């Protein structure tokens, strides 16, 4: 047990430093693009959204490489080195004058933007960071879960708490990054503001390799992507084949024994998405004498079919997270622009950096999650008999509601801020209204993240089979990617269609002349439609597994595995 704690400690230490480094680098990036690269608000927002989208799609590639070739440990190792290279490049960009635009000419009111070579080096740095994220994100949580023994009650409880505490530590790291690191970037220098996360990343790499001999390793069992495609192709080729009578599957459907040493539980054949079952129907000549398949594109195992069904079941739920994340992504763009035009003084001498304001969301999460995990969940568990207190879909739905409320509150506060700026602002356009008027929308968004994000992470990891855990975490990243591209699309459409008849558009460079609240209300409206879609999808969802507490013993779990057959 002591050894278990030691290698969890190495992994957790690496995770903490790696996240502190990565988040500290990009937490204030919108401000960096506006101040140092002299980009317009919409251009900077597009750069952030497009890069974020690419970064969040890259875990799909990382998951494929991890599952097919390298395994989780090696993938994380290479990815952390790539992240370090990206951070080092960002530090050099801030340090060397020839790698970033010159300062603005205040007297002439002229600001020169980046050259092609400067923008190219910036893109290279962001590319390295994307490669790093592509390897770390899909493997980080599964590698942590690998350290627990899921066959024991203690291990299962450890995994359940792991997801909540993982995000709690993530929140604490965010708070540090959004306060201390951002303050250094704003008040000391960008070189130190980027250099400190770079050094932390180097420490993270060293700590990660120190635990090499203590980790639990799971060998790659091959990528599930080819297997998923084979099921679809085989089912299509057999679309005209009729199902046999009766429920007996032995000898009718291809169901080979599990390989020795595999961690994957065997799945039983179900009737949901029954058309895919044809991929496992055995036809003449498709099974060789040794029990193997003659053509994997014409015959698939029951296990492959059921794994494909897992993806089919989850995708509609996955799609509902995109609009919810679109609301969350505004914290790093237009909320920062709002904060920069408000009174940010805390006391007489200290001025809150605009990029630090989203720490309010993180503090909300950091306070709420331990209370939720240690107080609320045990109380709810006694009533609902559900291991998590409420179902994962209920948790995600509550998060969607909070994201809608956050956008509505943001839309109501912005006209107050703009009116104050127009009536009382000086030449700098800063309203005398305190920046803490933005706190309610950020607190609501914190609750949205606490319910929806953690709900998604846990949902994907529990509803996918063990060998698809990397894919599960890639889907979570793809949700953020879809949100980034949707946000970029909305911003560009609004920017190009609302500025007519001599009036500035809603998202014009001067935020005091625009109407950002209309964008917030637009996202809130989309959120309401998304909530209706989510409720419709959730009603018909069939869980792969349900974990309930046994009525006879509150400390034992009656694990109702509808589709899982343990051998």
Average of the residue pLDDT scores: 82
- The poorly predicted ranges are 1-5, 551-567
Provide the β-strand percentage band: under 5%
Q: Can you tell me the overall shape? A: globular
Helix and strand sequence: HHHHHHHHEHHHEEHHHHHEEE
Record the strand order, biggest sheet: 1-6
Rg calculated over all Cα atoms: 26 Å
Q: Figure out the total of helices.
A: 16
Terminal residue distance: 26 Å
Report on the biggest sheet: 2 strands, antiparallel
Describe this structure in words.
The structure is a single chain. This protein has 567 residues and is mainly α. The chain contains 16 helices and six strands. The N terminus and C terminus are likely disordered.
Q: How would you sum up this structure in a few lines?
A:
Strand 2 and strand 3 (350-351) form a beta hairpin. The longest helix has 36 residues, at 153-188.
Key structural traits:
single chain, about 575 residues, mainly alpha, two-stranded antiparallel ribbon, 16 helices, 6 strands, about 65% helix, about 5% strand, disordered C terminus
């Amino acid at each position: 047990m002591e050894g278990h704690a030691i290698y969890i400690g190495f992994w957790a230490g690496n995770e903490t430093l790696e996240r502190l480094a990565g988040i500290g680098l990009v937490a204030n990036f919108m401000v960096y693009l506006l101040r140092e690269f002299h980009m317009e608000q919409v251009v900077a927002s597009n750069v952030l959204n497009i890069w974020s989208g690419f970064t969040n799609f890259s875990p799909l590639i990382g998951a494929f490489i991890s599952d097919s070739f390298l395994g989780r440990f090696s993938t994380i190792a290479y990815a952390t080195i790539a992240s370090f290279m990206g951070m080092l490049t960002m530090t050099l960009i801030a340090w060397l004058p020839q790698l970033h635009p010159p300062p603005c000419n205040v007297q002439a009111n002229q600001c020169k933007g980046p050259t092609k070579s400067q923008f190219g080096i910036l893109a290279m740095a962001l590319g390295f960071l994307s490669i790093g994220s592509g390897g770390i994100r899909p493997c980080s949580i599964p590698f942590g879960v690998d350290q627990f023994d899921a066959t024991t009650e203690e291990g299962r409880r450890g995994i359940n708490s792991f997801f909540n505490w993982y995000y709690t530590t993530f929140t604490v790291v965010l708070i540090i990054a959004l306060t201390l690191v951002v303050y250094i970037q704003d008040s000391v220098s960008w070189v130190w503001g980027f250099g400190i996360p770079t050094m932390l990343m180097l420490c993270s790499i060293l700590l990660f390799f120190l635990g090499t001999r203590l980790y639990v390793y799971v060998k790659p069992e091959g990528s599930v992507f080819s297997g998923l495609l084979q099921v679809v192709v085989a089912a299509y080729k057999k679309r005209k084949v009729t199902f046999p009578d009766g429920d007996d599957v032995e000898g009718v459907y291809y169901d080979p024994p599990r390989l020795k040493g595999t961690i994957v539980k065997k799945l039983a054949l179900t009737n949901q998405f029954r058309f895919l079952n044809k991929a496992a129907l055995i036809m003449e000549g498709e099974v060789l004498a040794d029990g193997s398949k003659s053509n994997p594109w014409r015959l698939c195992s029951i296990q492959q079919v059921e794994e494909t069904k897992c993806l089919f079941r989850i995708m509609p739920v996955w799609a509902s997270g995109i609009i919810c994340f679109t609301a969350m992504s505004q914290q790093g763009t237009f909320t920062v622009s709002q904060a920069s035009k408000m009174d940010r003084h805390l006391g007489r001498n200290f001025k809150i950096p605009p990029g630090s304001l989203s720490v309010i969301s993180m503090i909300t999460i950091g306070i709420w999650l331990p209370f939720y995990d240690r107080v609320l969940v045990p109380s709810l568990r006694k009533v609902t008999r559900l291991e998590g207190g409420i179902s994962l879909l209920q948790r995600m739905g509550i998060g969607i509601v909070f994201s809608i409320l956050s956008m509505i509150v943001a839309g109501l506060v912005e006209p107050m801020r703009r009116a104050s700026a127009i009536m009382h602002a000086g030449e700098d356009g800063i309203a005398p209204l305190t920046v803490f008027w933005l706190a309610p929308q950020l607190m609501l968004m914190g609750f949205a993240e606490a319910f929806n994000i953690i709900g998604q992470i846990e949902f994907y990891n529990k509803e996918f089979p063990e060998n698809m855990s990397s894919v599960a975490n890639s889907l979570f990243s793809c949700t953020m990617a879809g949100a980034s591209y949707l946000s970029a699309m909305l911003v560009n459409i609004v920017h190009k269609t609302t500025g007519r008849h001599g009036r500035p558009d809603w998202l014009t460079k001067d935020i005091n002349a625009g109407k950002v609240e209309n964008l917030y209300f637009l996202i809130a409206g989309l959120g309401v439609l998304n909530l209706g879609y989510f409720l419709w999808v959730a009603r018909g969802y069939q869980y792969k597994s349900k974990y309930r507490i046994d009525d006879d013993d509150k400390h034992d779990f009656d694990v109702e595995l509808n589709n899982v057959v343990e051998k």
